[in-house]
Amino acid sequence: MVWDSLNKKGNSHSTERMDLIDRFNKIFPEAKIRYLTGDREFVGKEWLTYLLLEPSIPFCLRMRESDTTDNGRRQLRASIVFASLKPGQTRTLSGKKLVWGRLVYVSALRLQDGKLLILITPEPCPTAISDYGKRWGIETLFGMFKTRGFCLESTHFHDFERLNKLFALMTLALCWAIKTGEWLHQLNPIKFKKHGRLAKSVFRYGLDHLRSILTDLDLNYHEFLASLQKL
């Protein structure tokens, strides 16, 4: 993973996001980005222009209901364009529309709570909504770093250099726990609950195992080496 600690409140601005992607490309020059997703905070003409530059970066970005689309004849708020959608219904506008000053394709889904999930892509993408759904893995990652895993907030760190080092260590620990959990799941599969979900996540399975080993390394030395090989 590549990240940056921001010395401010709120989300990143376009320049910071562009710098982060440039860093990623320098570290992983051979990597191919399938598509980039971003929530409603990651908006703007400068940001979208950067993604569309050659070589362009495929994206699936969420726009706000208050943002406008322009078909060349008139501008309308996205909430008005998709006002007729009922919960569970989807619609993709025909042809490219101007959003944040750039031509993109626009799709929308009416969520069960009545809100709109409105997405923009550089090319027609029938899987845009399902692709964007994979962004939920980011929220899961936050949970692993915080209350459901490493309890990041409990450190009360404020120094950005120390935080960056801590993120690096947690990233390694996260990969180790997931790899260990996948290995254990092959040996002794996690049971399913009545609602059809796993009783615990693969991450938690691995983390609990590593915790039990590390409490007494002398007694669990061979188990520790076996788990270490999974990293």
Keywords, please?
single chain; 231 residues; alpha+beta; 2 domains; 6-stranded mixed β-sheet; two-stranded antiparallel sheet; 40% helix; 15% strand
Describe this entry's structure for a reader.
The chain has 231 residues and is α+β, with helices and mostly antiparallel strands. It folds into 2 domains: 14-134, no CATH class; 139-230, no CATH class. 40% of the residues lie in helices and 15% in strands. The protein has 8 helices and 8 strands. Strands 1, 2, 5, 6, 7 and 8 form a 6-stranded mixed β-sheet that branches. It has a two-stranded antiparallel sheet with strand order 3-4. Helix 6 (160-187) packs across helix 7 (202-214). The longest helix is centred in the last third of the chain and has 28 residues, at 160-187. It is globular. The model has no long low-confidence stretch (mean pLDDT 89).
Topology:
Elements: H1 14-27, E1 36-38, H2 45-52, E2 59-63, E3 68-70, E4 75-77, H3 78-81, E5 90-92, E6 97-99, E7 102-110, E8 116-121, H4 128-133, H5 136-145, H6 160-187, H7 202-214, H8 221-230
Parallel strand pairs: 1-2
Antiparallel strand pairs: 2-8, 3-4, 5-7, 6-7, 7-8
